[in-house]
Automatic annotation (TrEMBL):
It comes from the Bacteria. It comes from Flintibacter faecis. GO terms for molecular function: ATP binding; phosphorelay sensor kinase activity. Keywords: ATP-binding, Cell membrane, Kinase, Membrane, Nucleotide-binding, Phosphoprotein, Transferase, Transmembrane, Transmembrane helix, Two-component regulatory system. The keyword Cytoplasm does not apply. It is found in: Cell membrane. Its main location: membrane. It is a multi-pass membrane protein. This is histidine kinase. Residues 336-530 form the Histidine kinase domain. GO terms for cellular component: plasma membrane.
């Protein structure tokens, strides 16, 4: 019942608002029009009496009659005919300079005129004037005009007047017509207001304004309660709506409505989605320091299309997954390391039982190059099990030759960021490390170290392998990637050729930095664009 009252109240408010506005405009228009009509009528009446007085004063018989000093019956007849002809004129009066009446429209009024007596003096200063005065018949609007003889001397004046009551009566008639017209227009405004409200209701598809307001508020609350970011844009990429989760991801404190989405989210494809009309789902992107899955869907509406962009923040999920997978990877690696360590103990036991004390000492010293701490750090940096196992295996293999193989502390390798397959990665890393181990084992430099760097992001992967060997001689640098070419003897030269093939197939690049008796560094770069 309350909702129905609110609904009807809002509809009534809309109806009354439209009707009140129309009524106010109509009243203002009618009042202004009525005032202009009355003013125009008053000016027109002033023109009639002024022109009549001027015309009568210009008649030669009238001037002769005043100069002779007695009324002329012929002049009286002409003036009577004129007063009967002119509509809206009440009185025509002809007097001499002393105010003696020579003609009056109503001859039965008798007596002297009811004038102020200063008309003659005023007419000596000006030929004509209009004023308002009183007579025995009431208030009049009077026009005076001077009459001159042939010698140019003032001999009298003519007055033409109309009663103010007649003017008021004409104004009242205009007011009645205006009132009738106003009523008609108010009725039309009433029908128009009802039609506008009905049109508004039909355009809202049967929903009442109160229902839409309540629906909008509820929808806003629901969208703001969603943990995923939701952004609606128009076909050119301008933001129409952005919930609170999206504002937090886009790092905007104020409502970004009207701002282009690509300006806040450079990886946005909202314009392409709007043009193509096809959506993209669960695209992995970086938004600031957050990893998000982006879904962009085209929206088709009656007033044009748009795009709905949904951001699913997977940063926390990846962090938890990272911890779980890292812990599991570390446990698996430690088990393998423990198994390998037990094998080493058996070998050492064999050396001791056979009396080969020096070999046992050397094996123990070299085994210390691979500590459990190094294994844990490697497992923490490289979260791809196959690659991690390969690297730790190479660490143990390098330790047999007294070589320290480490992974750079800032290395990061996660399965979801790889641009290559695990097989391709293990092939590249395995061949790089094997070549470096063979080089250090063959050359026996003072410092025997290998550093592996593995840096993966969703848009770029970089692999580096640096050793402290003798370097690549200048005369063979151009041929080291040729299949079958090797400085280590026949039947070799396949590892670097395989690395080159994978790199070319994936659109990557290989950079070689080497110095004699200092070392060599291979850097492989793969980008999402080219791979």
């Amino acid at each position: 019942m309350i909702r129905r009252f609110q609904r009807l109240s809002l509809e009534r408010q809309l109806f009354l608002s439209f009707f009140s506005l129309c009524a106010a405009l109509l009243l203002l228009f009618t009042g202004l029009t009525l005032w202009l009509d009355i003013s125009r009528q008053r000016h027109a009446m002033d023109g009639v009496i002024s022109n009549t007085a001027a015309y009568v004063a210009s008649l030669r018989p009238v001037a002769d009659m005043l100069e002779q000093g007695y009324p002329d019956p012929q002049v009286r007849q002409e003036l009577d005919a004129m007063s009967q002809t002119l509509s809206g004129l009440d009185v025509i009066l002809v007097c001499d300079t002393s105010g003696m009446r020579f003609y009056h429209t109503s001859r039965q009024s008798g007596g002297e005129t009811e004038l102020t007596g200063d008309e003659g003096q005023r007419l000596q200063e000006q030929d004509s004037f209009i004023t308002t005065g009183y007579s025995t018949h009431g208030e009049q609007r009077r026009a005076f005009h001077a009459v001159y003889n042939d010698g140019g001397n003032l001999v009298g004046f003519v007055m033409a007047s109309v009663f103010t009551s007649d003017i008021l009566r004409r104004g009242l008639v205009l007011a009645c017509y205006s009132l009738v017209l106003l009523c008609v227009m108010l009725a039309a405004a009433l029908a128009l207001s009802h039609g506008i409200v009905s049109l508004l209701k039909s355009s809202l598809r049967g929903h009442h304004p109160a229902e839409l307001l309540d629906l909008y508020l509820r929808q806003s609350d629901v969208l703001n309660a969603i943990e995923d970011g939701v952004v609606a844009t128009d076909p050119v990429g301008n933001i129409l709506f952005c919930n609170q989760a999206a504002q937090a991801l886009l790092h905007t404190e104020d409502d970004p409505a009207g701002c282009p989405l690509p300006q806040l989210f450079p990886d946005s494809r909202c314009k392409e989605t709007a043009r193509a009309g096809a959506g993209s789902y669960n695209r992995s992107c970086t938004l600031g320091n957050r990893q998000v899955l982006t879904t962009e869907l085209p929206i088709q509406g009656e007033e044009g299309g748009g795009v709905l962009t949904v951001f699913h923040d997977k940063t926390e999920m990846l962090r938890l997954s990272d911890k779980l997978s890292g812990t599991q990877n570390t446990l698996d690696t430690l088990r393998a390391f423990n198994h390998e360590f037990m094998n080493k103990l058996h070998v050492i036991l064999g050396y001791l039982q056979s009396g080969q004390i020096d070999q046992a000492k050397r094996l123990i010293i070299n085994s210390s190059l691979v500590s459990s701490q190094a294994v844990r750090e490697t497992a923490d940096c490289i979260r791809v099990s196959s690659i991690c196992a390969l690297v730790i295996g190479k660490m143990l293999h390098a330790a047999e030759y007294g070589i320290c193989l480490t992974v750079t502390p800032d290395s990061r390798c996660r399965p979801e960021d790889l641009l290559l397959t695990e097989t391709e990665c293990t092939s590249i890393v395995g061949n790089l490390l094997e070549n470096a181990i063979e080089e250090l084992a063959r050359s026996s430099p003072k410092v025997r170290e290998i550093r592996l760097g593995f840096y993966t992001r969703s848009d770029c992967n970089i692999i580096t392998c640096e050793d402290t060997g003798d370097g690549v001689p200048e005369d063979i640098r151009a041929r080291i990637f040729e299949r079958g070419f090797s400085s280590k003897g026949p039947g070799r030269g396949l590892g670097l050729a395989m690395i080159r093939d994978i790199t070319q197939r994936r659109g990557g690049t290989i950079d070689l930095d080497t110095e004699p008796h200092t070392g060599t560094c291979f850097t492989l770069t793969f980008t999402k664009e080219r791979s």
